[in-house]
Amino acid sequence: MFGIGMPELLVILGLALIILGPKKLPEIARGLGKAMREFRRATNDIREQFDEETSELKEATESLKEEVSFEEEGEFEPEGGDEPIGESGQESKEEVAPSPDTSDGVEVTAKKGGEKGETVPNG
Predict the structure, then answer these.
(1) What is the distance between the alpha carbons of residues 45 and 51, in angstroms, rounded to a whole number?
(2) Domain assignment of residue 37, yes or no
(3) In this structure, are 24 and 54 located in the same domain?
(4) What average pLDDT does the structure give for the chain?
């Protein structure tokens, strides 16, 4: 206890008895006992609150981990999952580019990624 041995404690108690007197010493000891009890009660309350908050935090992190592992396993399907996706990870929709000479009524379609498309008559 605070690095104080039994002989030192007896010397301190003897000095307190001499200085404070036999009538005052029990009152002071009682007051110190109450103060120590209140201090312990307060620290226990704080510890309990801290434990409750950490358990709630652990539960929240575990549920988030479960959601992330659920998504990584492929069981989660993002919205709009009906659209096909090409090898490069881009959608394989065709783009229509007008031909430079619009007088002949022909449109050229090209796929993304620089591939050549088909020539389709306009109209």
Answers:
(1) 10
(2) yes
(3) yes
(4) 75
Q: Report if residue 38 sits inside a domain.
A: yes
Residues 13 and 56 in one domain: yes
> 66 with 119, same domain?
no
How many distinct structural domains can be found in the chain? 2
Chain centroid to CA 61: 6
Question: What pLDDT score does 39 carry?
Answer: 96
Cα(39)–Cα(32) distance, rounded to whole angstroms?
A: 10
Q: Secondary structure of the chain: what % helix, strand, coil (to 5)?
A: 55, 15, 30
Output the pTM of the full model. 0.41
Residue matched to tokens 């409750």: 52
Count of helices and strands (H, E) across the chain? 2, 3
d(CA 11, CA 26): 17
- d(C-alpha 41, C-alpha 48), whole Å: 11
Domain extent, residue 99, equals: 93-123
At 57-86, the pLDDT tens digits run 999 999 998 888 877 766 555 555 555 555
